[in-house]
Specification:
The protein is mainly β and 349 residues long. 15% of the residues lie in helices and 43% in strands. The longest helix has 37 residues. The radius of gyration is 35 Å and the shape is globular.
């Protein structure tokens, strides 16, 4: 009898062992399965939110910001009439202007600026020395190098423009109220054979072509007019007459790339006029003030896509948005230690 009792107890213990062992195995398997379900594979880690004050997170954000800031989109050139330099200002992708530096050598009261069509050289009119300098643009940093006089016979030149075909240059002589016509070498950028072709102007301060036409516009500061001329067969200026109205001491005249709009800076009125341009005749009409906040505006330039304008003020630059109807809005001022900022041109945007 005792023998059977011992055998029964042994069987109970053995059965209990196997039952408990199997229960733990099942529990461990379930836990492993649950863990497997919530664990992300190594190839697709769970993105962790940034921790405030985490040095690695802050470093990456700072690097991205620095990378964006350091990306230069273009350069703006501004002549400083009361000095011997041209300011070079990096332009950011959003259109804002970075800190400006000085460039150019041998300049004397630099005034008007004009770019060659390939944007590799900049012409600078020097009212102090009655010379026109051509400077080579360093494409890596925007600096002006090897500025040397070119052409001759100028008298306090205020502006220069290259013809649309690149074969000729027109220089405004403010002191004598005349225009000089020069041959333009597209290869070495030199001006030569300069001769006076137009007299009896009124302190002309600017000259510019309409895109892809033989229409040319002259800002006649002293008599408050914009002169519209045709280019004759000998490249002389013919049929000159006033166009548009309402100007006050106009300093510059510029036509948009699409040829629809003209902008005239009115220095004494602290304003910019927007005019409609007739696509066939080239005449200005419906001239109205646009934009705001200007202070003795001098020159005007547009970026390549035509949605931003930059205007040189007495000692600053104004940046304005350009709307589809040509109007200027949201004008903001940038002070870059200019010394009577006059001419303004842009490369790269």
């Amino acid at each position: 009898m005792k023998k059977y009792i011992i055998l029964g107890i042994t069987i109970v213990f053995i059965s209990a062992y196997y039952i408990i062992h199997n229960l733990f195995d099942d529990f461990n398997s379930d836990v492993a399965a649950i863990a497997s379900d919530v664990k992300h594979p190594a190839s697709d880690p769970v993105p962790m939110p940034p921790v405030a004050g985490d040095p690695s997170t802050n470093k990456s954000v700072a690097s991205a910001s620095s990378s964006t800031i350091s990306k230069i989109n273009a350069y703006i050139y501004v002549s400083n009439l009361n000095s011997t330099t041209v300011s070079v200002c990096p332009l950011m992708p959003d259109g804002s202007i970075a800190s400006c530096g000085q460039s150019g050598n041998g300049l004397n009261a630099p005034s008007g600026l004009a770019l060659t069509h390939d944007k590799r050289a900049l012409y600078v009119t020097n009212q102090g020395s009655s010379e026109v300098d051509v400077c080579i643009i360093d494409r890596t940093n925007g600096q002006l190098n090897n500025c040397t006089p070119t052409g001759n016979g100028f008298n306090a030149p205020a502006a220069v423009a290259i013809s649309n075909n690149g074969q000729f240059a027109y220089v405004m002589n403010e002191a004598t109220s005349t225009v000089s016509l020069c041959l333009h070498d597209k290869t070495n950028k030199a001006l030569s054979n300069c001769n006076t072709i137009l007299n009896n102007l009124a302190s002309p301060s600017d000259i510019n072509f309409a895109p892809e036409t033989n229409h040319i516009y002259i800002a006649n500061t002293a008599n408050n007019t914009i002169l519209f001329c045709m280019v004759g067969p000998g490249k002389e200026l013919i049929k000159c007459h006033p166009t548009g109205d309402g100007f006050v001491s106009p300093q510059s005249v510029s036509v948009s790339a699409n040829g629809k709009y003209a902008y005239v800076t009115n220095q004494s009125a602290n304003s910019v006029s927007l005019c409609q341009v007739n696509s066939i005749s080239g005449e200005f009409s419906n001239c109205q003030s646009t934009g705001s906040g200007f202070n003795a505006p001098s020159d005007f330039t547009l970026n390549s896509v035509g949605n931003m304008a930059y205007i040189s003020n007495a000692s600053s630059i104004m940046r304005c948005n350009v709307n589809l109807d040509g109007t200027l809005t949201d004008c903001t001022q940038f002070n870059g230690n200019f010394n009577h900022s006059t001419g303004i041109r842009m490369v790269g945007a």
